[in-house]
Predict the 3D structure of the following.
Amino acid sequence: MTRTRTVRIRRARPDEAAELTALALRSKAHWGYDEAFMAACVAELTLAADEIAARRTAVAESDDGRVLGLATLEGAPPHGELGLMFVDPEAMGLGVGRLLFAHVRATAAATGFTTVRWAADPNAVPFYEAMGGRRTGAIPSGSVPGRTLPLMELTVRPRATPPEAG
């Protein structure tokens, strides 16, 4: 994929649930996980149409209308969760993840969250640390029994108004 001129963050639509689930699975598979591992992750990475709004799902969209990534900010203030955050493998390295993470941070601040926590794929820890997240421990995987994942946390500073998302 060539570098796009603009990427915008907007609210996800319920009719995009299957497309977003497929993107999350492609992104996870990018790290070389085998078929059995990926099969174990399907339920946890599936985004249902009726969950889109409640999970505060945002998408990154290219100027030609392609969905390049997604993120969800879940829970109720003051403590939230970054439930899903995935970038299409073709868009990795283009700043899409940074835009999505900045959107989640701004939305969390405007919504009254003081902390956001998440279980990180071990491959993504350097990215999250670069974005200001810090590793605070480990948490059991929701998909693979016996596997633990890095637990990350971000302290959020309050903001007056939520960011616009489409």
Summary: Strands lie at 7-11, 57-62, 67-76, 79-87, 115-119, 134-140, 148-155.
